[in-house]
Amino acid sequence: MSIKITSLAIALAFGLAACTSIVPNSGLNSTDQTFPQDSPEFFQASVGDRIWFDVDQATLNSEAQSILNAQAAWLLQNAEFQTLIEGHADEQGTREYNLALGARRANAVQEYLISKGVAQNRLSVVTYGKERPVEICSTEACWSKNRRAVSVVSVGGNS
Amino acid sequence: MKSFLVALTLSLGIIAGPTLAQSTGPLKIEITEGVIEPMPFAAPAFVAESAAVGGLAEQITAVVIADLVGSGIFREVPARAHVAVITNFDSPVQFSDWKVINVQALITGAVTMRGDGQIAVKFRLFDVFAENQMGEGLQFAGKRDDWRRMAHKVSDAVYSRLTGESGYFDSRVVFVAERGPKGQRQKRLAIMDYDGENYQNLTGENAIVLSPRFSPDGKQVLYTSYETGLPRVYLLDLETLRRRALSDLPGMSFAPRWSPDGRTMLVSLSNGGNTDIYRVDVASGAQNRLTSSPAIETAPSFSPDGSRIVFESDRAGSQQLYVMSADGGEAKRISFGAGRYGTPVWSPRGDLVAFTKINKGRFHIGVMRLDGSEERLLTASFLDEGPTWAPNGRVLMFFRESRGTNGAPQLYSVDISGRNLKRIDTPNFGSDPSWSDLLQ
Question: Which of A95, A134, A137 lies at the smallest CB-CB distance from B385?
């Protein structure tokens, strides 16, 4: 009997983990109570501060668009925040090209947020190319995390 | 930093030594298609003509040998095989002593301390089997601290006489010195001799720095820095170590390259997500936009005569190489092989373009003619990138990054036939090398 109970508990734990892993990117309905809703930490953890791109692409897929919709909604509610959009690339490209690609990715995010009503003067962009990886293995598992655009919010701007 | 300033501003006096019968000699090594059988040479220890330069004479000999052997086209017949010792620089050479150990080229030398405190390095080059001297004996004089440069000058003269082409040993490299873990790499500009000696830092580690480029006169460096938060192109004076932003450039700027006359630069500006190539007057900041497609255009490089530009663009869907006039306008695609091509650099001889190629997850350094023909891949690895030409257009330096969580870049060189791949030792990691012209 005891064995059976344990396995159910594990199943339950896995189920919970699966649910919570969706929460950070699920928009403003998050139940996360750790950070105030108008904090950069909340934006990062619960709204979702980053989106990911396909290889050598700067197009926004539907997952990226839904995260950016949540970012736009949060920015419209928290008008005192400026956003610096960082464009990044994976290591599988040349340095200069990746700088240009990162700029293209950051710009795609900027234009999308503007299209959702965020004022242009609250948004700025920077490209890091392949200079700042968040994951450091040399496989697609890491590269897919590094092909990203990150929205960094702060009061009074980033520069 | 002081010794480095001295080295850069020094001009070595070159005085023709005692004239002996000049000969055009039959001894010549053809390096056009790469050399399969290196030419055997001997460089018996240079004679120390005063006690004060005893150890130095041996060190200078060792550098000359390292230069010539390192080129891949010469093979040293080592001292332990010699049957003769040179004890007097001006005594006649006994050619039979060198024939018997199959030496083709013999280099003799001497080092002297002069009355003014400078040292002088003398050498002669002999064609052993023709039994004659090749060219005049030469003497290089300079400060003792610059003994490596004098050794490199000897090597360049020997290389030049035996190949018919100019050498590349008395030259320097600026590059990005990197350290720290892959996720928090710290970068700074550094400079060193072509062989990794005389390393000096040029900047601190407070901001990401990228792609330094030596000016044609070797006195300035263009590079990209994030010190304001955005990537911007800066100009660094190597004598004063003062830097200035090329501040009239709007937005983000990167990938600078000098014009052959050192007066203008090519640079990529990124605006509204679109990256294009501009030509900028370095003194006035006046700009000329050279490309205007919505594609990425970057990594431009001038032809040695300044009339054309090779660059990369993804206007046809993937990263490829193009050539256009120095005034912009229509561009002709030159790369048509499988995969993507980037970082083109025009050879100082004008005959080839070196590039990085990415194909099936592998990176290569390669060369092709300017019409795209005769593509040759010289290297292959997880990540090879960023070639820069030796002053004579016969060797390329680049960086190779290893894969994985501990992956890091190191500098390498390879000759344009794909032979003689070598790692250049640097104190930490190294990337983005830029090779100077021969020093004056």
Answer: A95
Q: Which of B16, B15, B17, B157 is nearest to B90 (CA)?
A: B17
Residue B199: which of B219, B166, B217, B176 has the closest Cα? B176
Interface contact B358-A92, CB threshold 8 A: yes
Which residues are within 8 A (CB) of B29 and not within 5 positions of it... i.e. 6 or more apart? B35, B39, B73, B74, B162, B163
Which of these, B143, B255, B238, lies nearest to B191 by C-alpha position?
B238
B440 touching A, CB under 8 A?
Answer: no
Its ipTM equals 0.91
Q: Does B298 touch chain A (CB under 8 A)?
A: yes
Is residue B5 scored above 50 in pLDDT? no
- The alpha carbon dihedral of A143, A149, A152, A156 has a sign of positive
Q: What's the CATH code of the domain at B23?
A: 3.40.50.10070
Query: B381 at the A interface (CB within 8 A)?
Result: no
Q: CA of A126: which chain B residue's CA is closest? A: B230
Same domain, B210 and B356: yes
Please give the backbone phi and psi of residue A41, each rounded to the nearest 5 degrees, phi first: -65, -40
A128 neighbourhood in chain B, CB within 8 Å: 208
Tokens of B239: 């004598």
Q: Taking CA atoms, what residue in A is nearest to B356? A: A94
Contact B358 A107 (CB under 8 A): no
Tell me what pLDDT residue B34 has: 59
What is the per-residue pLDDT for B320?
98
Select the residue of A107, A128, A137 nearest B405 (Cβ to Cβ): A137
Residue with more model confidence, B7 or B215: B215
Q: How many contacts (CB atoms, under 8 Å) link A and B?
A: 103
Do both B323 and B355 map to the same domain?
yes
Whole-number pLDDT of residue A8: 34
Residue B344 contacts A where some CB pair is shorter than 8 Å: no
**pLDDT tens, residue by residue, B381-411:** 999 999 999 999 999 999 999 999 999 999 9
Closest CA–CA distance from residue B9 to any residue of chain A (Å): 32
- Nearest by CB to residue B182, choosing from A104, A108, A133, is A133
Give the model confidence (pLDDT) of A97-136 as tens digits: 999 999 999 999 999 999 999 999 999 999 999 999 999 9
- Per-residue pLDDT tens over the stretch B91-105: 999 999 999 999 999
Do B76 and B29 lie in one domain? The reply is yes
**Better-predicted residue by pLDDT, B23 or B406:** B406
DSSP state of B278: E
Residues B155, B224: one domain?
Answer: no
Name the residue range of residue B81's domain: 11-163
